[in-house]
Structures are given as structure tokens and as C-alpha cells.
């Protein structure tokens, strides 16, 4: 009887460890026990512009792939078995890509061009090392959600592209060295750990003129490697950068000034950098740069998830439409 009970328990445990039947459309496994052995193959098999969400379950394993979720693969979910052991990794970097001055944007491990993308329980890594710009995750789509993922790299770990993109990061671990969260999207980081691996800058926002929200960090933990003791919250990659930290715990590695200007520019004149009720050794505001802001409770109230990620009218480029489409004679 005891042997029978033990066998039943082992069988149940095995069933619980597998994806529930019917919950996923495809399964990826390196050992051949799924529908595919590569993540890209599963994505390529998904229906374009589906009527309902397509879910891909990725079993634990190391997937050495450079992956693209094209614009036609909307409503796609990539769900790992565990964030620590479901690892997507590649090692491109600026000089290896060698596509001129814009090589950074081709170094990604995973690029998401589709709207309504969702990732859960994954490690997405650029393993190139400290060799310059090397993106792990590049997101261009709108309404993209990243939950319980580890985004690992050095310089330029996470590129939040898409001028009218809205992105939500929940319970994520994001590690890097220089400007390791950068781009023009509206991005809300909720209860994330932001880990600095060197003395440098966390954010390099390039928010478009006229947008109310750029980067919003709420209830996040800012930590660093041992010996790292001089990190800035951000510097403006382009004019009109907007970054706000609210109710975050900041380690002693955050410099008293808090923020920096981009070298040899006047971008600090249009940047909007603000803080509200942060804690920790790096949160003291007495020596913050004079062009940053400390929010009141009323001002902080506009940074709720519902408001930050609400639909907005797309920001139009400052171009004369007639001149843009005029046929040259």
C-alpha cells in the first residue's frame, strides 16, 4: 500500500510540473520532448494576427538563439518554466554586428516588433560581456508586458524602442553597466530590481516631446555589485527625456546629485527628472541637481499604472506633411 501511494504521489508531482493540457498552443524543449527545440521555430509556427492569444510554453534549458517576434505575431505569450533556468541567450555586440553607427540596434538577443506581446518566467541575456553596446531585450510593440523575467547584460541591456509604445515590467530583475535601460517608449517598472554592475548611469531616456510619461519606476529596489559606489539615476539621451522614481529603495551607490546631463549638451534644460518618497542611503535629496524635481503627493498621483499605460493619442513627428510627401520635380 505504501509503495502504491508513493507511486501515485510521484505521478501527481510529475503531472504538476508539466504545462496544463490545453493551456498552451506549443511547447519548446531542448531535449525534444516538446513541439519544437527552438523558440524561433515555435514563433514561426504561430498564426499571424490571431483572433485569440497564442501561448508558447518554454521548458527549462539554455536556448542559444537570436530571436525575432515580427509585427504579424500579435497577442503572443512566451512563458518559461522558471525565470532562473529558462534562458534565452546570444552574444552579439556593436563591433561584431559592424553595421555602422547604428549597430547597437542589431545586437539584440530578443526583439519584439509585435503589439500585445507577453513574456513570463524567462531569462533574456546578452552574454557578450563588457565589450560595448550589447542589447538583451529590444521592445518596439505597444501594450507589451514582461513579468518575472531576468534581463541580463552590460551596456544597453534593455532598449525600450517605439515612440508610441507602452511597456509594463513587473517583478523583473534588470542588470547592466551603462545606460542599461534606454529608449523612447513609455515604460512602467513595477516592483523590479535594478542592478548596477559598474559606476555609470541607469537610464538614458529619449522621450518624445509632448509625451507626459517616459520611464516610471515604482516600488523598485536599486542595488549594485560590491565596490560600485557612483551611479546616476539617469542622463538624457535626447531632449525631453522624462524619468520618475516613486517609493523606491535606493542603495548607497546612487550619487547625491542623482542625475547627470548628457556630455556637451543642454538637454538638462528640457529633461524632466523627478522623485517621490524614495528610501535608502541613496535617496537623500539635499544635494540633488537643481534641475530635478521632488513631487508632492498630488503630483505623484498621476503616476498610477492606469494613467501611465492609458491609451494616448500618438505623438506626431514635427514634419510638414506636404513637404514630406512632395514629389521632387
Describe the structure.
The chain is mainly β. It has one domain: Single-stranded right-handed beta-helix, Pectin lyase-like (Pectate Lyase C-like, 3 Solenoid), CATH 2.160.20. It has six helices and 26 strands. Strands 1-2-5-8-11-14-17-20-23-25-26 form an eleven-stranded parallel beta sheet, with helices on one face. Strands 3-6-9-12-15-18-21-24 form an eight-stranded parallel beta sheet, with no helix packed on it. Strands 4-7-10-13-16-19-22 form a seven-stranded parallel beta sheet. Helix 2 links the parallel strand 1 (26-28) and strand 2. Mean pLDDT is 91; it is low at 1-18 and 321-329.
Task: Lay out the secondary structure.
Elements: H1 2-16, E1 26-28, H2 39-45, E2 54-58, E3 61-64, E4 67-69, E5 76-80, E6 86-90, H3 94-97, E7 110-112, E8 118-120, E9 123-126, E10 137-139, E11 144-147, E12 150-152, E13 158-160, E14 166-170, E15 173-176, E16 181-183, E17 186-190, E18 193-196, E19 201-205, E20 215-218, E21 221-224, E22 232-234, E23 242-246, E24 249-250, E25 272-276, E26 293-294, H4 297-300, H5 305-308, H6 321-325
Parallel strand pairs: 1-2, 2-5, 3-6, 4-7, 5-8, 6-9, 7-10, 8-11, 9-12, 10-13, 11-14, 12-15, 13-16, 14-17, 15-18, 16-19, 17-20, 18-21, 19-22, 20-23, 21-24, 23-25, 25-26
How would you concisely characterize the structure shown here?
The chain is mostly beta strands and 329 residues long. It has helices at 2-16, 39-45, 94-97, 297-300, 305-308, 321-325; strands spanning 26-28, 54-58, 61-64, 67-69, 76-80, 86-90, 110-112, 118-120, 123-126, 137-139, 144-147, 150-152, 158-160, 166-170, 173-176, 181-183, 186-190, 193-196, 201-205, 215-218, 221-224, 232-234, 242-246, 249-250, 272-276, 293-294. The model is unreliable at 1-18 and 321-329 (pLDDT under 50).
Amino acid at each position: 500500500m505504501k509503495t502504491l501511494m508513493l507511486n501515485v504521489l510521484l505521478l501527481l508531482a510529475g503531472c504538476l510540473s508539466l504545462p496544463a493540457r490545453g493551456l498552451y498552443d506549443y511547447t519548446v524543449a531542448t531535449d525534444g520532448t516538446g513541439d519544437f527545440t527552438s523558440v524561433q521555430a515555435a514563433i514561426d509556427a504561430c498564426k499571424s494576427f490571431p483572433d485569440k492569444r497564442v501561448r508558447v510554453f518554454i521548458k527549462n534549458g539554455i536556448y542559444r538563439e537570436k530571436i525575432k517576434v515580427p509585427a504579424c505575431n500579435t497577442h503572443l505569450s512566451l512563458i518559461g518554466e522558471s525565470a532562473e533556468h529558462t534562458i534565452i541567450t546570444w552574444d552579439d555586440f556593436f563591433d561584431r554586428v559592424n553595421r555602422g553607427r547604428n549597430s547597437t540596434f542589431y545586437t539584440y538577443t530578443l526583439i519584439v516588433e509585435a503589439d500585445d506581446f507577453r513574456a513570463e518566467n524567462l531569462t533574456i541575456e546578452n552574454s557578450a560581456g563588457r565589450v560595448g553596446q550589447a542589447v538583451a531585450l529590444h521592445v518596439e510593440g505597444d501594450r507589451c508586458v514582461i513579468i518575472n523575467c531576468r534581463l541580463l547584460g552590460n551596456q544597453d541591456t534593455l532598449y525600450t524602442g517605439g515612440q508610441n509604445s507602452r511597456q509594463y515590467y513587473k517583478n523583473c530583475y534588470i542588470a547592466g553597466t551603462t545606460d542599461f535601460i534606454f529608449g523612447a517608449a513609455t515604460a512602467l517598472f513595477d516592483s523590479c530590481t535594478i542592478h548596477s554592475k559598474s559606476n555609470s548611469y541607469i537610464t538614458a531616456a529619449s522621450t518624445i516631446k509632448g509625451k507626459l510619461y517616459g520611464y516610471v519606476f515604482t516600488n523598485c529596489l536599486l542595488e549594485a555589485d560590491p565596490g560600485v559606489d557612483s551611479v546616476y539615476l539617469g542622463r538624457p539621451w535626447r531632449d525631453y527625456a522624462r524619468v520618475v522614481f516613486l517609493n523606491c529603495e535606493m542603495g548607497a551607490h546612487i550619487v547625491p546629485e542623482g542625475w547627470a546631463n548628457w556630455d556637451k549638451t543642454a538637454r538638462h534644460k528640457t529633461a524632466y527628472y523627478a522623485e517621490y518618497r524614495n528610501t535608502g542611503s541613496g535617496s537623500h535629496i539635499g544635494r540633488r541637481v537643481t534641475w530635478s524635481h521632488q513631487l508632492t503627493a498630488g503630483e505623484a498621483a498621476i503616476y498610477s499604472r492606469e494613467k501611465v499605460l492609458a491609451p494616448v493619442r500618438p505623438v506626431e513627428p514635427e514634419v510638414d506633411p506636404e513637404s514630406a510627401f512632395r514629389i521632387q520635380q
